[in-house]
Amino acid sequence: MRTLKIIEHVSLDGVIQNSVDGDGFPSTDWTGPYRTPAGAELMLSAHGERFDLLLGRRTYDIFAGFWPTVSGVPMADRLNAAKKYVVTHRPEDLGWGPAEGVGPDLVEGVRAIKAQEGPGLVVTGSSTLTSALLEHGLADEVVLVVYPVLVGTGKRLFAAGTPGQTLEFAGTTPTPSGVLLSTYRVAGPLKSA
């Protein structure tokens, strides 16, 4: 069975949005000042040598408009080579491939993909997808790339109403610029005393 890893770049106040996507977001590229070669190596390691992507349609479209234009960068090479599984009602126009739609039922579609042979799945961006995957027990690991900034407004890491979850700490690695890469394993529903 394939594993599903959520990797999110997040501000200290929980914002994951990093670009304008039609809603007038004012703080584009707030991660830029913190990028370092050491951070890039950590991100490559977090993704793994081979992986497939699971993306919401909006994130897919944003990525498809950028990553195919980048060459000679290891992360771009890996993202462009990855198979993209896209949660969409328009699977017929997935030009950044290899790509295919997940199907009409997110939960059953992702379960079927996880049951296939292949590399691990990585989810990044796709804020509404992240919450649904956790709610239905489909995520195995969460990697938070936490930046030392408060963005103030924008799409949040977890949507309001996301059910409580217990995550087991697996480790943290700092970068020279103050970004923390923290890994957690999904352990199940929130436990209370």
UniProtKB/TrEMBL annotation:
Lineage of origin: Bacteria, Bacillati, Actinomycetota, Actinomycetes, Pseudonocardiales
InterPro entries found in the cross-reference section: DHFR-like_dom_sf, RibDG_C, Riboflavin_Biosynth_HTPR
GO biological process: riboflavin biosynthetic process
Domain of life: Bacteria
UniProt source species: Amycolatopsis iheyensis
Name of the protein in question: Dihydrofolate reductase family protein
GO molecular function annotations of the record: 5-amino-6-(5-phosphoribosylamino)uracil reductase activity
Domain Bacterial bifunctional deaminase-reductase C-terminal, chain residue ranges per copy: 105-180
Database matches in PANTHER family: BIFUNCTIONAL DEAMINASE-REDUCTASE DOMAIN PROTEIN, DIHYDROFOLATE REDUCTASE FAMILY PROTEIN (AFU_ORTHOLOGUE AFUA_8G06820)
